[in-house]
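Feature request, filed as a ticket because there's no other form

It would be nice if the structure record came with a short human-readable summary line next to the tokens. Right now we just get the raw output. Example of a typical job, pasted below so the devs can see what we mean:
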Amino acid sequence: METKAYSVSLEKNPVIAIRVIPGHFTTSNVHSNNYLDVSDLKSNANVAQDVARELAIPYLSNVHVDTIVCMEKTEVIGAYLAKELTQEGTSVINAGGMIHVVSPIINAYGNLIFQGSMIEWINGKNILLLIASISSGRTLNCALECLAYYGGIVVGKSALFVASQEMRESDVNTLFTADDIPGYEIFKTADCEMCKAGRKLDAIITSEGYTIIE
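Raw output as currently delivered:
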């Protein structure tokens, strides 16, 4: 599986690249024929800074942001994104301001919640939501429901990768889409073509990476 991996770079900034691993993968609710490894984008400080610079472009001059909410271990990018959005400049709406970077946690019932000390940075605040990868939209929808519950005002949604056409049309600012990955497909579990062809699963995908199925 790993031997077939290859990289796809962002055309306007080749430093930003995702690693593509072909196979038969499952998340909690969809199957896909590729695993997209964005871990370097999230954890490499130099690359994360470039990622943040690209993601900041749509918001610099016309979107006031109070808080960046990071999902799926995107906090490093979120910190650089806050720095980009508060840089000095006459056309930068948040110039010289203060942006908090926070992440929700999952409680014992599987719900996203914010700890008490963070609620003041959510309630009534302009929120930029940052997600690593959007395939079915489940993580995005859970995050939006959580922010609505706490009174956050979502003014922007950004991701490193967006798979489905429906998600691409929902005002998500993204670096990569399924169009950048040759032959990329996702399936509802019951409709998976690979399962119908008798191909066994290779691995389970989570926000932490993937676990090989022996």
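Something like this underneath would help us a lot:
The domain at 2-212 is CATH 3.40.50.2020 (Rossmann fold).
The CA atoms of residues 87 and 116 lie 29 Å apart.
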